[in-house]
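Q: what does this look like with zinc ion bound?
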Amino acid sequence: MKTDKPRPILLKDYRPPNFLIDTVTLDVSLHPTRTRVRCRLKLRPNPLVAKPGALTLDGELLELESVKLDGRQLAASEYKVSDKALVIAGVPRGEFALDITTYCNPDANKALTGLYLSKGIYCTQCEAQGFRRITYFLDRPDVLATYTVRIEADRNDAPVLLSNGNPVERGTLDGGKRHYALWRDPHPKPCYLFALVGGNLGSIASDFTTASGKKIDLRIYVEPGKEDRCAWAMDSLKRSMRWDEERFGREYDLDVFNIVAVADFNMGAMENKGLNVFNDALVLASPQTATDGTFVGIERVIAHEYFHNWTGNRITCRDWFQLCLKEGLTVFRDQEFCADQRSATVQRIREVRGLKASQFPEDAGPLAHPVRPNRYIEINNFYTSTVYSKGAELVRMLQTLLGREGFRKGMDLYFERHDGQAVTVEDFVACFADASSKDLTQFMTWYSQAGTPELICQLKHDARAKTADLTITQVLPPTPGQAKKRPLHIPFKLGLLGGDGQELELTLASGERLADGLVELRKRTEKFRFRDIASKPVASLLREFSAPVNLSIDRTDAELQFLMANDSDLFNRWQAAQDYATRVLLQAIAARRRKERAQQPKGFIEALAITLANDSLDPGYRAQFLVLPSESDLARIIGRDVDPLAIHKARNALHKAIGSRLHTAFAEIYQRMETRGPYSPAPEQTGRRALRNVSLGYLTSRARPEDVARAAVHFSQSPNLTDETAALSILSTFNLPERAAALASFYERWKGDHLVIDSWFAYQATSQLASSLATVKRLTRHPLFSIKNPNKVSALIGAFAWANPVNFNRPDGKGYAFVADRVLEIDAFNPQIAARLLSAFRSWKFLEPERRQAAKKTLQRIARTKPLSHDVFEIVSKTLE
Ligand SMILES: [Zn+2]
């Protein structure tokens, strides 16, 4: 726990390291409370630095036993140790070796960074700055070294011993009581990619032959007894390996690739070289224990971590400000992989939904920051959706601007030029500029400017001249620390539709034909004149969501209906439905707050019905079409004086109106979309289940006795967890005995499974019933809940704070107070998780006055508390600013 006033770290202060480390030899003797680490470093002064001065190694929570310099034991007067560093003043001018022996306590480590124990398994998490909790080191990503690691442990406690790279040797000690394993990683890497695992683990094995014919041994390690839940993760891994060869020409570069799943993990997963460590929720799956959504999530995260081998590991970040260099790029790569594995449109809709639900509010509030931030207090606070999701959108825009081939050339150049280096965003973008001869200077502004741009569009048709004029103006809202903004370079995809729904040819006044419908915006206002447009067209703008912006254009209801039925860009067809639904909902919310009756949304529901009945569209796509904009999305669009309860009621009322008006159609779809035969996570089946379960939601929206019975039957007869939890989520909204019965039966069935039971916590935490806060409080004392486990915190407290806007934002402020208390409780042992939970307050300034006041008081109370971690201090002070 840190009490000194934290000082921000600035991008402009970057300096190269004074020393370089060439090789690291670790000898780790595992012990639950007293693990000994012997570390031998080969160092030399950095030739780029004129006067390297004293050597300062980072270190935290380490007990130092001895330091040797070139074999000579240093006296205590020859170095200084603090709670942050080991400083050695008199180091040689040339190469030298340091031998450092330290001890650490994995059992006491509940921050889950560094070396810790998860259910008896030793594991590590070093990104961003966890390695300094294992040994004294230059803990920064631009220090790359090769590692040799010897791990020693009690053979019964830890029969499996793993580290990065290739296995070299193993053997027994103490007459077989203890044993060791030796690993060597030939690829230089920064220490954040170091990993070590020791424990009693089951595993499944397979292999993969690379394009050049090299056989790689693949293995996934899990809690013994769960081996039968790893097949999907293994299958996803092999598909990822093949895809990266085919799409980007990237082959795997070690003899083995290991994945380990652990129960206590702060993040989703970690791409350590050759030894990915996963939150077990993103590895373990069977039809009974994982939903379709989890299967898709596993496929995606397995691919993501694997793809890091080239984008992140072989080429890494110069400093932590460049985090988007590896994350934005790798998210983009995993999105492209998923688009190739499944419906590209459904995948794109999911991404955009996610971006709007999480990144857009971040960009609009007090926590807004550029994709490449220029200052931080705690780097762990910057693993944000801006860095990840908006970062991926920037890479996608590069691909849109250069075309797929041009983009691939830029990537090839990036790998060729920077393999083995720690680089910057400038280095990355320069590869695309050089490979394509395109000027990307203005594009760089995307990396330094925060906030979501708004594009105000106007379309004017001149019947006599047969021209259509499209005017697009960029509005760049101010964000904290950035009042004035420069215009951005934006790829903008569009189409014009004729009255019969036909796609019109796009010919500019200059005579240039836009074959792919792409224009580039560079100035604050751009005008495009299209010729040979006989009658007034309907514009389909920002197709495929070609840039992460808000779009505004005046459209009539009839135009939205027209686009919902006719747009050849299926993404925009879906977007038209969302826009129409948003319009209907905003009117209803306003009417509700004026205590008036809302208009009947007849036109919208009729337009939905056409898509619902269109069997030429794949069921998964139709399911997305039927999901209304989320409450948080609506709150963001309203933007001020937000009343979460009014939003919730209006959305529910529309859901009910659609359900009753299209009842027959939903009943028919529900019948027809039933899947038979064995479960498969393939897109055909998951699409059918999604459409069927969305239909069930509408069918039961009026909560009549027959609806409740229908949901109860769906629940009790469900052959897989997808259907089971779909029904449970519906039943958990009813204040009826069937709700309690379903929750009790789910509990009885799954209380022995620490992953599945998380959805039992989550459905209660997100319940709209007035009793939900009391329920959540009670569940924090449940024997299956643990505040030390990040997944449990997320399933119960996180779900309440993030996904229950009505009860989190209770006007009496009790929802805020409860979450604040948990933030402070967690901050004492896991600041990273505490800060993440606290960011649920990020939109408090947009609330109506009563709630705003209550949220402010709560935030001020947190800010006054002492001590606070740097993580929580940074989030609370920015949120209040
Ligand atoms: Zn990543």
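The first helix runs from residue 231 to 248. The longest strand covers residues 178-189.
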